[in-house]
Design goal:
By secondary structure, this protein is an alpha+beta fold. Helix content is about 30%, strand content about 45%. The chain has one domain: Nuclear Transport Factor 2, Chain: A (Roll). It is globular and about 45 Å long.
């Protein structure tokens, strides 16, 4: 009888104190909200899933074949989105999601193609780092690659 009571108490306490888990679908949803805002020109929607100090970078090779990493500002991206002419349609097509989660940290890898007004511009991959904050799951870091050839996935 003591064993049954002890077992029941431990079961109830583990249910009461367990946190809801962050799933692969939840991680995809954060990225989807970001890109919904991106495509709609809705910077408030984008900000809803961005950390205050979001780090942005791009890895690329220049015309001479030199490998570079450039640092960007999230505020510049948001300003570009807010001021995008209505005649421009930016279409970043995510081709896949690869998600890894460990506790309060997640990583989402999304190969993509970028199209401007129906014309292919470049391809690459986005690598998002997400973390659980007091305000919910936020994108802390975004680095992307960009190239115009060898886009087969």
């Amino acid at each position: 009888m003591k064993f049954a009571i002890l077992f029941f108490c431990s079961l109830v306490s583990s249910i009461m104190f367990s946190q809801p888990t962050f799933s692969e679908a939840d991680a995809k949803q954060v990225i989807d909200v970001f890109f919904e805002g991106f495509h709609q020109g809705d910077t408030l929607k984008m900000r809803s899933v961005m950390a205050e100090e979001l780090v942005m970078q791009t890895a690329f090779s220049d015309a001479q074949g030199n490998h570079k990493v450039s640092n960007g500002k999230a505020s510049d991206l948001l300003l570009a989105i807010a001021n995008r002419p209505e005649t421009q349609q930016w279409d970043e097509r995510l081709l896949d999601y690869k998600v890894q989660i460990d506790g309060n940290l997640a990583h989402v890898w999304t190969p993509y193609e970028f199209w401007l007004n129906g014309k292919f511009i470049h391809c690459g991959a986005n690598a998002f780092t997400l973390a659980k904050t007091n305000e919910g799951w936020k994108i802390l870091h975004l680095i992307d690659s960009r190239r115009k050839t060898d886009c087969g996935y």
